[in-house]
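pls design
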């Protein structure tokens, strides 16, 4: 149970950090989003949410969570 809680909290923190960093690095252009968006972005944007970005944030957050989890696990076992 402690491992699940640790993974859930680490994932939540890393996802929010990655999504914040993605918003800082790649700011959305809301006033011209319909004309400046590529066809791929238009295909995956529903209700103002770009689900391709959300999917990429989840993948990166999973990678960060796995790295942190196994690093902590290996240090605890030593």
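designed seq:
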């Amino acid at each position: 149970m402690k491992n699940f809680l640790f993974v859930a909290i680490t994932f939540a923190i890393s996802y929010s950090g990655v999504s914040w960093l993605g918003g800082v690095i790649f700011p959305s252009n809301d006033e011209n989003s319909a004309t400046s968006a590529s066809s791929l972005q238009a295909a995956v944007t529903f209700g103002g949410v770009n689900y391709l970005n959300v999917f990429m944030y989840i993948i990166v957050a999973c990678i960060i969570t796995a790295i942190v989890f196994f690093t902590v696990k290996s240090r605890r076992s030593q």
